[in-house]
Amino acid sequence: MSGAPGRVLVVDDSEVIRQLIRVNLELEGFEVVTAADGAECLEVVRRVAPDVVTLDVMMPRLDGLRTAARLRAAPATRRLPIAIVSACAPAELRQGESVGVDGYLGKPFDPAELVALVRRLMLLTGREVPRQRFAHGFGSAVELGESG
Fold first, then answer.
1. pTM assigned to the model
2. Domains in the chain, please, with CATH?
């Protein structure tokens, strides 16, 4: 692998999860920056200009879905690829899709799926793409609203 394939901002209130994601992505050559909640994410994203953001849903101060909505509303980050990495209910997934989240990976996750998700989202970086369907996630074509 030649050089760093991109910068990922990992946002999760669990330090253990942040470190797990960091290690798995760094092993694949990604540069990883972390934030503990959505409010910190909004500060960090301006400072480090990530190529992709992964967000947990349930976090203090500002949750992942509201963070995604704010990132989509700001001209500087409206095209920034965003993935939810969280244990979510179908309603939260629908809300994530409606605010423009590009991918979803459920917890607990397989590290190989995490890397695949981030690589796929790297392809979207800076591009204007239709945001009607998740770019990645759901494994075997599970539809929104189905329970398994």
1. 0.84
2. 7-122 (3.40.50.2300)
